[in-house]
Amino acid sequence: MTEEPKIYIGIDLGTSAYRAVAINQHQHIVASYQQASTETGKEQSAEAQWHTVKQVISQIIKRCNGKTIKAVSVDASSGSVMMTNQYGRPITPMLMYDDDRSLEQSNKISQYAPIQSGCHGSTSGLAKLCYFQQQGLQVESLLVHQADWINFNLGASLGITDENNALKSGYDPIERSWPDWITQVTNTKYLPKVVPVGEKIGQLSKELCIQLKLDNQPDIIAGTTDSIAALISTGITQVGQAVTSLGSTLVVKLISEQPIFVPAQGIYSHRLAKLWLVGGASNTGGQVLRHFFEDKKLRQLSKEIDITAPTVDYYPLLSAGERFPINDPQLKPKMTPRPKSDVTFLHSLLQSIANIEHLAYERLLVSGAQPANVIYTTGGGSSNTVWQKIRQQTMKIPVLVPKHTQAAYGSALIAMGHISSL
């Protein structure tokens, strides 16, 4: 007797498009769909976001051809928040992850928050909550993260969030609670209940199931942030496995048995089931390369690089300021002297970024993390095979490109219960 296919759906609320991936019980992709977001900018309409997500869900379910949908999980950008009333009606716009209007509020938070807290900075969820408070709020109001909002519309209870999205709102991932100091800056009645990633938080509403022509009520599983969902998509599960994202910036994350917070070096930790993701984000990366070369030129010049040739030592940044592995807001870019050869210049940039990555993992090791034994690469830079060889030569451990890198695929794995295996 053939086993009935079970389908798990992951939804990724990207900055430019909303994506969905459906996988079966063997983790194979059976359908995918994406739709451009109608909302742009730092301030967005939550209702419009849900309208687009609903269309995405409808389309992905159609592509599953009547198979049984078992569960759904959603990831979204950390720090994107709004306020609703006690019935879930938005009473503010959704302020997105990069909205930095809350500088005054973040300065007040810094007087009380421990330096290792994830809520520092004018774009944090807690800073935005304090900003909303100054505009006037009822005590019955609730802080709702972007992923929480979609989960609520799917059928989950209002006022529930996950441990990763809550980090920038002041949540303490070590104590697994809202900290006592937070009462100095906000009323805790505004704050949601926090649950572990992977926990069941509800079922698709009966009304939505009727609209989507579903015979069952799929579970809603607490998801995570978009960057962590992308990491989960690679399939890493073991201590010592790491992921480097070579996007506009350079981000490294390493699976560790214990959390590490070294704010002076830009090192922070996210809880991941029973383990931790330890890492940091540098301001170097692909945006520096694209400042000098268009994509076509990058590909052409890369093919001409001899990775054994000498290079110039740089610290490639577009402007002053670095977060990790050197935390120095005044650190100046170093990209001179420029060789006459564009091939040598690009080679030097790629090698220098690889050196920064190597330093990043060294800093994690010195700070108490386990040594990385394999690095999976995500982001646009993962397609540059010459850069991969340069990094392999520099890191001296396997540097691999995983089969999957999509955040939506990672969320589908969460829906399937993959997180419980960590």
The mean pLDDT is: 93
What order do the strands of the largest sheet run in, or round the barrel if closed? 3-2-1-5-12-11
CATH class of the largest domain: Alpha Beta
How much of the polypeptide forms β-strand, as a percent range? 15-25%
- Spatial separation of the terminal alpha carbons: 32 Å
Q: In the CATH scheme, what's the topology name of the largest domain?
A: Nucleotidyltransferase, domain 5
Number of strands: 18
Please tell me about this protein's structure.
The protein has 422 residues and is of the alpha/beta class. The protein has two domains: 6-227 and 408-421, 2-Layer Sandwich (Nucleotidyltransferase, domain 5), CATH 3.30.420; 236-401, ATPase, nucleotide binding domain (Nucleotidyltransferase, domain 5). The protein contains eleven helices and 18 strands. A six-stranded mixed beta sheet has the order 3-2-1-5-12-11. It is globular and about 65 Å long. The two termini are 32 Å apart. The mean pLDDT is 93.
